[in-house]
Write a structure and sequence with these properties.
Layout lengths: L3 E5 L4 E3 L4 E4 L5 E11 L5 E12 L8 E6 L8 E6 L4 E2 L11 E3 L4 E2 L2 E2 L5 E3 L3 H14 L2 E9 L8 E6 L9 E6 L5 E10 L2 E6 L4 E6 L2
Parallel strand pairs: 1-6
Antiparallel strand pairs: 2-4, 3-4, 4-5, 6-7, 8-9, 9-14, 10-11, 10-14, 12-13, 13-18, 14-17, 15-16, 15-18, 16-17
Length: about 210
């Protein structure tokens, strides 16, 4: 796989989020995201730029690499970031600034047995995010992320899922809600919150909203 190079020239930039990849529902297609701030000479942030790059794989499990060059003048300087990304991580949530990255590395615990099953994560829609924002305001928390999930080829009535959530600290209080078929939200059980991880029990795959309560 050849390196994919994205050259972005929008004044002076600084990275505010790491580059990350998330699989789209289209097989073997990867979406990469980064967010830039446009900085003036007095260090004032004037605009945010969300950059999306879609890369099709070559039919193998090999994950493409992406290089993002930031160029321009002023305090932003220039530099290059090259990151090999996980392919089951969602770092972009439409309509939500600086969302919590949510990933899932597999090993669902089903019927008290650790399996090789994976909960696949995908981007959700802006309409779903708007609904989750209303929910967060109603319960008195802050919406941190919303993801869609599927469990292809896996049947379960109850499963414990370990979500990789970099930046989460022990002592943080999170609630997770799942959207039902009628568009209402139902709270699901959060079993553990520790550094960079939230462990929860789900009864089916679907749309999940992560809300921080403290």
């Amino acid at each position: 796989m050849k390196k994919i190079i994205a050259l972005v020239l929008v004044g002076a930039f600084v990275f505010s989020l790491p580059v990350s990849a998330a699989t789209s529902p289209v097989a073997n297609t990867y979406n990469y995201y980064n967010t830039y701030n446009n900085i003036t000479t007095d260090n004032h942030v004037t605009n945010n730029y969300n950059i999306r790059i879609t890369v099709k794989g070559d039919g193998t499990k090999k994950i493409p690499r992406v290089i993002i060059n930031s160029g321009g003048s002023g305090n932003g300087g220039s530099g290059t970031v090259t990151i090999k990304n996980n392919n089951n991580t969602v770092s972009f949530v439409p309509g939500l600034d600086c969302p919590l990255t949510v990933g899932q590395g597999g090993k669902l615990i089903i019927n008290c047995v650790k399996t090789r099953a994976v909960l696949s994560l995908f981007e959700t829609t802006s309409g779903t995010v708007s609904s989750a924002k209303v929910l967060a305001a109603q319960v008195g928390g802050t919406l941190k992320s919303v993801v869609d999930s599927k469990a292809p080829g896996v049947r379960f009535s109850k499963a414990q899922v370990n979500f990789y959530t970099p930046g989460v600290q022990a002592g943080d209080i999170y609630k997770i809600y799942q959207m039902g078929a009628n568009g209402t939200w139902q709270e699901i059980q959060v079993d553990e919150v520790r550094q960079d991880h939230i462990v929860a029990t789900i009864y089916k795959a679907g749309t999940l909203a992560f809300i921080k309560m403290n």
